[in-house]
Amino acid sequence: MSELHAQTVAQVRDTMLPPVPPPRRETGAIRWLRQNLFSGPLNIILTVLAIWLLWVALRDVVPWAWRGVWRASSLNECRAIRDQLYPEGTSAACWAVLTDRWRQLVFGFYPASQIWRPPLALVVFLLAVSPILFARLPRRLLWLTPAAPFLIFWLLWGGTIWGPVAAALGFALGVAAFLALSRARYPILALLAGILLPVLYWSFVAGPLARALAGVAPLALPAVASKDFGGFTLSIIIGLSGISLSLPLGVLLALGRRSDMLIISKASVFYIEVIRGVPLIVWLFVAQLILNYFLPRGTNFDLMLRVIIMVTLFAAAYIAEVIRGGLAALPRGQYEAGDALGLTYWQAMQLIVLPQALKISIPGIVNSFIGLFKDTTLVSIIAMFDPIRMASSIRATTAWGGIYWELYVFIGLTFWVFCFSMSRYSIWLERRLERGHR
Amino acid sequence: MTIAQAGPPRQAFRLSQLLYDTRYRSLTIQVIALFLLAALIAYLIRNLVVNLHDLGKDFDFGFLNRRAGYDIAQTLIPYTNNDTHLRAAMVGIVNTLLVAGLGIVTATIVGILAGVLRLSKNWLVGRLMTVYVETFRNVPLLLWIILVYAVLSESTPAPAAFRGDEPEASKLFGLVAFTNRGTYFPSLVWGEGAGTLAIMLLLSILAALLWQGYARRRQAATGQPLPSLWVMVAILVLPVTVAFVLLGAPVSVEVPTVRPTGIARFQGGINVLNSLVALWVALTLYTGAFIAEIVRAGILAVSKGQTEAAFALGLRPGRTTRLVILPQALRVIVPPLISQYLNLIKNSSLAVAVGYPDVKATLGGVTMNQTGRELESILLLALFYLVVSLVISLVLNIYNRRISLKER
């Protein structure tokens, strides 16, 4: 049988055929192009449109930027160099305005001999927040964090160091009193002492103490007035102080809005809605023009400080709404678990609710921060020299009158780098905190 | 033996319970908070009264009825410089609402387009839209407004360049002329019989809606679908076109042209301030980038199983999008979209950077500087924005509640 069978089968292949390579159009670059750019009539049209758009957008801009002149001291000189280098009628950017005026764009009117101070202050700030932002860094860095605000203030505005030191001592006093008394189980007394002692200290002791210390050891930097701040230094100072102050305030407002206590929640709602309903520009005008009406006669504190306070109050309302979203997204069981464990309100919030709610709200919070940083440009409208106003004032000089794009392109790119890196950080943080349950 | 039914131990109320008993503590805290709030408000008002008294000012809105005495570059409602400050503020309000309304419409269109295209399978288009979104989201709006304004006022030709049979500059699509003196759009000229045409149009819209309603009811009752889209298009287009021809083209488009002699100036068409165009374009592109992200997130939030289920039921791709994906995506999209609209309205106050005469520039600008009434002007200004914001969020929240998931 088997023999017979073997005879009926004409041929038995005993080797495999080598695999044929896939058709040319299904491999490599061609396949990618076919799949991603030319997969159908609609896609072909879209691709052609996109290429045409890119061509229109870049055809003039790229050569203009590439040919740019980097060394000149005025627009006329810049144009003379351009006409020397290129045939007549060629357009070329005049980046020389940046090399010539970079100090104003970055530091404003900060005294030239002192411009090492703002970058140093930024470094101190970054060192102070880095242990909060990146958990891997040594915990010992946290000791710098409470001291940083005073150090930064001193570095930026100058003057004697003892003023900020004396002010910082007040906080230390308050915290020490609070901790000592709450350890002795007098919570109400601890709260009262924690608030009253520093206030008394600041009103009566801090001033003379600072003066006495300054007499003993005169440690001072040249003072810089607020009106000399400008350029990106100003944006970054307003932006970073607004960001770091508005987050705690926003958390409090969000908790207040969700509170069971009627008066607290209604007051928070009123505050949040009024702040959010009115544009920042109007609030900045309030800070500039009518805030003084509401303060005791003769108080006239710094415009920059007023703006920082206003920006903080403004951003806090937005952040409160973002965090409220995070709080609402938590399952009710989390709150009830806190109660069931016998935790007090603040313990439950601190240990159970806020860590989860803040994690959910990270993208929103960072978006608010980016918005806040971009909004610092609005101070140009109330006569502060942020980069945009600085650009206008550079354009008003005889040397650089008539220059437009180069300044704005630089300012835009710088803002873009800052904001884009913030948004990337938030994506990174979101991934790192992801616990895999959704 | 019976057990005595004893309630919780009754004790006389002690004062310390106000602090240590959670039943009463919240009351204490609220009373203290109320007291502190009232004290703060009283303090601020006292300062205000004292300061106003010392400056010899009073709190009075009478200035609104005085003559404004300044001209406004764009007036949609009749206004001359002899009108009152109140009228000037109204002109500003209308201008603000105009740019906000235009911006909302175009930003929505741009945003939806960009958001959908960003999800496109086409690699190049997707990347291009990502670049668009990231570029506009990460650079301040003020800079965009100034940049667009600079493009319009610096790189556009003077009206003289449009003169003659072979002008140096050309209009966009042969219709819109961008000049450094403003942008000129074509206008519609209403001739004799235009009223009839308008009535015809209204009637056809009504008929089309009636047809749609009938088709829907019939399908619900019998399960037989009627062709709805093509019939509606026909109802809308055919009668009006026939009437248009029969009436002898009563409505025509007038393209702006430069008058041939004298100082180069445009005739016909609608002249729009460059500041309005700059503000409009910048607001559109900036808010559009944010809306694109919202739309993209909304579409991605609908799980793939929904699409597959719809296909399994035999729905075509168009209907799947319209009946299954969109209603679910809208639920995610609408709430953040509302806040983008509100942002756009508030951002329109940046008009001050390019000199567009919005309410900030009239009431909070010239009027405030002329009369010296900062307090009253800014209060009114804030009130206006607050009312607009609250009204819009109210209306859109009602809409949102209608489309949101009905959980039972």
UniProtKB/TrEMBL annotation, chain A:
* Pfam families hit by this protein: BPD_transp_1
Coiled-coil boundaries = none
| GO biological process: one example | amino acid transport
Which stretches make up the ABC transmembrane type-1 domain?
A: 232-426
- Localization per record: Cell inner membrane; Cell membrane
Q: Which residues cross the membrane?
A: 37-58, 115-134, 141-157, 163-181, 188-209, 229-256, 268-291, 303-323, 365-385, 405-428
The membrane topology noted for this protein in its Swiss-Prot or TrEMBL record is:
Multi-pass membrane protein
Reply yes or no: does the keyword Membrane apply: yes
Q: Which domain of life is it from?
A: Bacteria
* Keyword Cytoplasm tagged: no
Of the GO CC terms on this record, one is: ATP-binding cassette (ABC) transporter complex
Q: Per its record, what are the GO molecular function terms?
A: transmembrane transporter activity
Q: Which PANTHER family match?
A: INNER MEMBRANE AMINO-ACID ABC TRANSPORTER PERMEASE PROTEIN YHDY, MEMBRANE COMPONENT OF AMINO ACID ABC TRANSPORTER
Q: Which UniProt keywords apply?
A: Cell membrane, Membrane, Transmembrane, Transmembrane helix, Transport
CDD domains per record:
TM_PBP2
The protein's name in its UniProt record: Glutamate transport membrane-spanning protein
As for family, the record states: Belongs to the binding-protein-dependent transport system permease family. HisMQ subfamily.
From TrEMBL, chain B:
Instruction: State the Gene3D superfamilies in the record.
Output: MetI-like (1.10.3720.10)
GO process annotations (BP): amino acid transport
Q: Is Transcription among this UniProt entry's keywords?
A: no
Q: Name one GO cellular component term.
A: ATP-binding cassette (ABC) transporter complex
Please give the Pfam families that the UniProt record associates with this protein. BPD_transp_1 (PF00528)
In its keyword annotation, does this UniProt entry include Coiled coil? no
One GO MF term on file is:
transmembrane transporter activity
User: Where do the TM regions start and end?
Assistant: 24-45, 88-117, 129-152, 194-214, 226-249, 277-302, 378-399
- Per UniProt, residues of the ABC transmembrane type-1 domain are 93-396
The record, for InterPro entries, names: AA_ABC_transptr_permease_3TM, ArtM/GltK/GlnP/TcyL/YhdX-like, MetI-like, MetI-like_sf
Q: Which SUPFAM superfamilies does the protein's record reference?
A: MetI-like
Report the locations given in the UniProt record.
Cell inner membrane; Cell membrane
Q: Which UniProt keywords apply?
A: Amino-acid transport, Cell membrane, Membrane, Transmembrane, Transmembrane helix, Transport
Recorded topology in the membrane: Multi-pass membrane protein
The text of the family note is: Belongs to the binding-protein-dependent transport system permease family. HisMQ subfamily.
Matches recorded under NCBIfam families: HEQRo_perm_3TM
Protein's recorded name: ABC glutamate/glutamine/aspartate/asparagine transporter, inner membrane subunit BztB
Native species of this protein?
Rubellimicrobium mesophilum DSM 19309
Taxonomic classification: Bacteria, Pseudomonadati, Pseudomonadota, Alphaproteobacteria, Rhodobacterales
